[in-house]
Amino acid sequence: MPITFLYLGVLLLVICVWFLLLKRPVYEAVLVSFIVLLTMTGTWGNVLTYVNEAMSTSLLYSMVAFVAMSVIMTKTKVIDGCISIILALLGRIPGGAGYASIVASSFMGALSGSGPGNVMATGAITIPAMKRSGFPAELAANVESNASYLGNLIPPSSNIVAALGAFMALYPNSDMTTGRFWIILWGVSLWFVLQRILTLFLFCKYYKIKPMAKEEIPNIKEVFKTSWQGLLLPVIIFLPFVLDYFFKSTFFTARLGEVGAKYFSSSMLLFVAGIASLYACLIAKEKKSVTPHKIAKMMADSVKTIAPAIGVCLIGYMIGAMFSDLNVAGDMEHFIVAMDFSKLGMVIFICLLTCFLGMVIPGSSLVVIFGPVFISTLSSVGVDPLLAAAMLPCICGVMCGITPPLALGLYAGMSLAESDFGKTVKNDLWWVFGQFALQVIVLMGFLPIMGL
User: Fold this and answer.
1) 449 falls within a domain
2) Residue 134 lies in a domain
3) What does the DSSP assignment read for 269-297?
4) Which of 90, 167, 184, 222 has the fewest CB atoms within 10 Å, i.e. the most exposed one?
5) pLDDT tens digit string along 21-60?
6) In total, how many domains does the chain have?
7) Residue 450 lies in a domain
8) Alpha helices (H) in 284-406, listed in sequence order
């Protein structure tokens, strides 16, 4: 047994004790684990190097930009109109409130980057609508929480940035662009959205769910008239990456050169978040809420939300730099490869491992710390390394929020739906099984993925 696993065991033990038993913030638990590992490995002399490597990671600043964007999107409530439009379009079909929840919460989750936060934000609208149309409380809670955590898989979630960083750490000379990586992730996420829709369809048949009451369905003309500007947000966010994917070689490279096109692709992560935030401020209904003073206060009030998320990623990068120095990833990869798994066995093993680790380590940190290991071990048995990288936000970020007993999204949905704990967990297991099975199917390469 390599000493690598001792380091991993200490990391998990410290986080469990500090976060789960002492009830301290997760960023604090990760920092304490970093300090313990520095002492244990005698690498205090390299600590400034690890800090410098973490602070020099450009993707970290992209995360800050998108987290700040999510604050503005949430506070200005520009997404509420989009949710109303979706309810108006889908509310008339059996289980329409649930389908609206899947569509709206998946998109909102991608913008907010916070599974539990998204459950509370969109669930306040969708869960009561589901319950009033005949959904059992436990089903309403699970529809919302499982849809919200899909946001971790869908660009522009900050988990996506970490996954791209893990891939580029292994393949620094790759010509991979941000645009192409996003296209692949949308291709992956479409299958998981369809899986949620199919699962809901079966539950609607089982429980004989009805459409929403006519008086509760928003008037499509009125809602569209007042909220159509919000529908342009996906275009503003996604269009630059689509153009980068389809026209990189024929347009951008021809005009900017190969190096210029590469850096243009990387910089999009920063300026798209800024443009989307500016647009959200321009279309906000309450103009007094988006003055420079109000926006500054908005950010100041959200520091407690922003700082922990960024802090965990920063410390995660520091641990990743230390693990790279200690060759933890290489030792772990050699050990796993030596177990001589088949392709299917390796895929199942990695999916189970990330599910377990995700119960104690936040998804973004899991991607940062262990992402290269998971990519290289999966690729060693024939999984496309680019597909493995694209699946990191799914196997690390999505499963951790929906798997009992530490499913934060599940508890958030449960609190809004006022559902019974036992019934909610039993219902959730069907969703978890579907998620796990589809992860294996996608990683095995059995489904076509856009962009690959």
Assistant:
1) no
2) yes
3) HHHHHHHHHHHHHHH-S-GGGGSHHHHHH
4) 222
5) 887 876 788 889 899 999 999 999 999 998 888 887 665 6
6) 1
7) no
8) 292-301, 303-325, 328-338, 343-357, 363-379, 385-392, 399-402
